[in-house]
Amino acid sequence: MKVIKNLCYDNEQEECTLDIYLPDTKPSPVFIYFHGGGLESGSKEEIPENMKQLPMRDIALISVDYRMYPSAKFPDYILDAAKSINFIKEYNANQHLFSDIYVGGTSAGGYLAMMLYFARHYLGQYGIDPDEFKGWIFDAGQPTVHFNVLRERGLDPRLVRVDEAAPIYFVDKDIDKTNQPRLLFIIAENDISNRYEQTMMLIKTLEQFKYDMNKVHLEIMKDHKHCSYSIYEMVQKFIKAE
Fold first, then answer.
1. CATH number for the domain including 33?
2. pLDDT in tens, 42-84
3. CA 161, CA 163: separation in Å to the nearest integer?
4. Helix, strand, coil % (nearest 5) of the chain?
5. CB of 151 within 8 A of CB of 119?
6. Which domain holds residue 203?
């Protein structure tokens, strides 16, 4: 395994760096991962249990840092996430390291991944279609307006809001679903208040708007709380399923 540390994807923002963990086999599929921490804490060093073993399964891993609240405001962290993916695509065009690209994250990182997939204008500014990637993995992400975005607005973070800062807000957009990639949702049975129910609501909304439900996968973590489980086996199984 080879590790490339602290690649800068935005020269104007010192927080915007990423690490690449490469398997010996190239090209390989890659999982681009956004860490959790409520959009206000965490780092690319905080990779879930066993995830650094992905290269041992011939899957590259990229862990991304992004600007965070309170110094960053909505949608700064989403813009960073989109910019990082554009950087990775351009980097790969030169280095030819990756075959298929998968994108995802945990908790706040899951929210960022959801926003990138459903709010297509973020990647669209780089000419990137979210459907061009092989799959998306949303672990414990918030489908409604993130609680720290509510806090930024001076609102009670316990409120449930749906607007332009909510992934579910964009589900009804008229998009061509013929090239829909596989989507994996992971949620704990005893997750943060309303997180499980909101995830079920999002999946039901996808069904109502004629997404290909054969490509929508759900893993409910029985007897678990928010992020109290390892996603390693689910991630490698999801990627290897191709």
1. 3.40.50.1820
2. 999 998 878 999 999 999 999 999 999 999 999 999 999 999 9
3. 6
4. 35, 25, 45
5. no
6. 2-240
